[in-house]
Amino acid sequence: MFKIKFVTLLFSMLSANVYADIEISFKDGAPKDQFVIKNTSTCDVKDISMTIDLLQSTGRLIFDTSESGKGVEVFQLFEVTRGQIALKTATKVNDGDTQLSLDIKAIAANDFASFTIDVDDTLSTSQLGNIRVTGNEIANASVLVNIHGDKVLKAAFDLNGKARVIMPKCSA
């Protein structure tokens, strides 16, 4: 009997500490760069707003969405490739912008949403040229997540092009 109660107590303690973390990954690609927003938890994430802010990035990154703008050579518009994502404040991302804001309806547990766009660095000398972005060039860019209009959580991209937002505990 004691063993069953102990196992039940242990399970309830573990399940009470399940977090709904979100991992955002940047992947440089040709001709489109990709952002993947993965829900790494065991519960669904619903109705969040997210801002990707490149302003503090090591490579002084910008979104390149126009042929005749601040970017280099190839440009790509914002395009949702998976999931329930929509631009929050505008119908498009302007060329040279350093921020984009999204509304995300839902991401199921252990699932992901993604979008593509072109990102260029604005360094005078860069590792792979201005049209290709490395993980260390997106380092220090930030992700802000607003949950239900109540709380803003922030994370920075690391040298591998990933940011992890620690969300509140999953609700039952």
TrEMBL record:
Q: Does the keyword Signal apply?
A: yes
Keywords of the record: Signal
Instruction: Provide the leader sequence positions.
Output: 1-20
Q: Does the keyword Signal apply?
A: yes
Superkingdom of this protein's organism: Bacteria
Protein name as annotated? Aggregation factor core
